[in-house]
Amino acid sequence: MGDGSGSDARNHPGRQIGDHPAADLSMDLYQRMDDALEGAPGSRGCSNLERDRLNLLEQKGMQRVGVARSTLYQQVASELRRAIYSGELRPGDALPTEVDLMRKSNVSRNTVRLALGELVNEGLISRTPRRGSVVRDRRPLLMYPQKELEPQSGEDGARQEAFARAVAQEGRKPGQDIEVAIVEPPEDIATRLALPDGELAVVRRRLRYVDDQPYNTNDSYFPFALVSNSEIARPADITRGANRVLEELGHPQVRMIDDISARMPTSEEAARLKLEPGTPVVVYVRVGYDQDDMPVRVAVSVLPADKHLIRYELERR
Predict the structure, then answer these.
(1) Where a domain ends, among 98, 118, 135?
(2) What is the arithmetic mean of pLDDT over 134-141?
(3) What is the DSSP string of 162-211?
């Protein structure tokens, strides 16, 4: 690739063209397209045929100098990604407009949109009608699943539910919506709870919030015969947590099995959790057993992958 010292390179400093074979033919089209986008007086823009010609010239020219067209948008995405990770662009900051990015990198609008789409899929930015592209808050909630059975106390010394405690430790505000129902559980839940056919379960469905933003869902199933007369079957928050209630009923959980998988969310999950397009979720299933090795709880959590970090600490004994 040349040193970009020609007159066309001076007019378009972001494009390192040198002896780029498409330069003389394409620069006028780029200029006219930019003028049209900004509404410059007398600008006539580019026809569809000229736009197709520009894309073809860009593709052929880049291939001749050893750069595939597909890498153009990746280069734009890489520069924006670097700015985000370095802190130059902080959560809540607006990215340059599409027109600004086109001018800075001297690429087409389609190339810019491909770059922005890649960052959306990575969970780094969100796109809104009014503000354009904005850097997302990427601070994940740190979860320690192995600490769930440890005593959890708030600042006043009272027992506190594990999720609320984890959020509060980070100086953030926890919250949740709770629904309680008596159901015939799905087959996989019934199998994990070792329930006979037709046996009922109590399910506590929770939509959990961090700083008033929906963060995850947690559906906890319990054998109806075990918890029917307890707080677990009533639609109210249990500040000390359902695990403590199980202990009081004589069924402390002494062993747990976790299954963790990843998938794309259902449309209902995406709407409920207000997920950005392309955001995967982690499905975290925990089965708790009492001292007689009887399953007493199945908890199914759906965790947006960009908002959670699950950390296990293992010690050799």
Answers:
(1) 135
(2) 83
(3) HHHHHHHHTT--EEEEEEEEEE---HHHHHHTTPPTT--EEEEEEEEEET
